[in-house]
């Protein structure tokens, strides 16, 4: 199945376009986020920095800015949908908010969200760009509302998960929040008359769920975890519940840390502690609820792959980062 | 010093690194307290042409079945290997089956990547780990 000589699978290959290395070797790069324009990348690492990468005049990806505000590892970064704000969730229990200047790559540290007791593990903006969710090892999810003057008001503190919460993510269209946890479940949260209630709890994973991603219209969700499995879920409108429609196991030999569903091509990419990147494809016709491995790129990084994200503007371009302190940009190519 | 034949790491090399780790509570080493043992270590190295990374699996036996420092011992083992093994490694650490009351819970915690990093960013835990893994000068 895996051809390591030309990395060609099902007629597809993953071509390395660019590779950027942090100065300190083997700094763990935990996460990355594409700016909505598709031309800027934000990364975060255990050196406590958020870094901004972009292309220079010669089309080479280079480090543009290092943003310093945290005392510990920065675990995740997220751009607001308009691209004006960047949020960073840190193990120092705070979330930093940065405002990008209009035409340049300058950033002002406009706010710091405090309140969590332990490490903040994930941060996400809703589709309107006014709500922000953060989650922590303290087992709570905080929903924040952005007010004028870059002030953030905490609207709600949600508890329900029994353990650390690894990831929060908003539905791409609705005011519906999904969270995944060390307690092996995924939960959905919704504002019902001012109270954020847990609407659904999804069980099936056999260990911590590291990452989740919605498809474009939000009718499906994909999740991955410590159990080396990928689960596909679908919203069953008739019965008002989320059901597991497909699962992939035994593709990765170690935990899967990241998963991302492309809203441009509908393909899915994942990154694993076995150093590989895997691309999945949805079936067609009657097999729309089935998924197959399109390509597996072994040795994509020299260590754990912590994050894989599709470019939001340019089809089939994806970025990855890992424990080898490297950020890589790839193009998925269909061979002739 | 450890002699790494042909740069291939085996369980003896790994045991030599972890045997002198001091127990966080007692004045003894993990070897003396029979917490670690060469036979409970497996190493896969040089597999599938991956010459730059080895895969290590270690079982350890806490001194008592309710030992609250079992996660710290696991951190010490992991950190010492990371510092002393002259090769990149992927390490799995588990409690010897049946030797702890909350075995499953601890196994999950000590192999969770975020928890490991976060624990080592806590100054008290970090200092304790460094103290336990420090090599005595002879």
TrEMBL record, chain A:
Transmembrane segments: none
Keywords (A to Z) from UniProt: Repeat, WD repeat
Classification via InterPro entries: CIAO1/Cia1, WD40/YVTN_repeat-like_dom_sf, WD40_PAC1, WD40_repeat_CS, WD40_repeat_dom_sf, WD40_rpt
Annotated Gene3D superfamilies: YVTN repeat-like/Quinoprotein amine dehydrogenase
Keyword Repeat: yes
Single GO BP term: iron-sulfur cluster assembly
Start-end of each WD repeat: 29-53, 67-99, 113-154, 158-190, 202-234, 298-336
Entry's Gene Ontology cellular component terms: cytosolic [4Fe-4S] assembly targeting complex
One Pfam family, short name: WD40
Role noted for this protein: Essential component of the cytosolic iron-sulfur (Fe/S) protein assembly machinery. Required for the maturation of extramitochondrial Fe/S proteins.
Family: Belongs to the WD repeat CIA1 family.
UniProt protein name: Probable cytosolic iron-sulfur protein assembly protein CIAO1 homolog
TrEMBL record, chain B:
Membrane spanning stretches: none
Keyword annotations from UniProtKB, A to Z: Chromosome partition
Keyword Cytoplasm: no
Top-level taxon of origin: Eukaryota
Protease keyword on record: no
Pfam family, one: FeS_assembly_P
GO process terms (BP): chromosome segregation; protein maturation
Gene3D superfamilies assigned to the protein according to its UniProt record, in alphabetical order: 6.10.250.1280, Fe-S cluster assembly (FSCA)
Domain MIP18 family-like: 13-90
UniProt family annotation: Belongs to the MIP18 family.
Designated name of the protein: MIP18 family-like domain-containing protein
UniProt organism field: Dictyostelium purpureum (Slime mold)
